Amino acid sequence: MTPDERAAWEAGLRAVHAEAAGVFAVYIIRPSDIPRIRAGAANGSPLAEGLNRATSHTIVEVHRAPRQAPSLCLSCPATVPRGSVFAVVLMVPDSERPEQCMGGVLCSRCATLDDDALQERCVAAVREVFPDARTISIHPAEGHA
Ligand SMILES: [Zn+2]
Hints:
binds zinc ion
């Protein structure tokens, strides 16, 4: 990451954090969730539309990452090479109409952990950046997307 990229990344994090006021909804999106999110987006759900866009963007980033610098798992030290099976984690500001969110990925091993274990690890990852961050868990399976 160049100094300019680092500055842009930090500015993005600050903007998302300001919008969230410390409150995020954490979505763990496994490959099996994608058809339901796309269907929700096609039916005009703004939340599903946003999750779909952010998920697609995150997947493209994994596939575009240089082979010598693959994406990293949010939950463990493993890399997430292109072509592997992985899950997407989106941390969405808990606001009426969130404008942006933070995204990350889980390696194929971590993606198989149960939701409670993953929630715990995601909260820990967010707190590394924002010690005061609080999270609210909303699973697509439970209604919104
Ligand atoms: Zn992992």
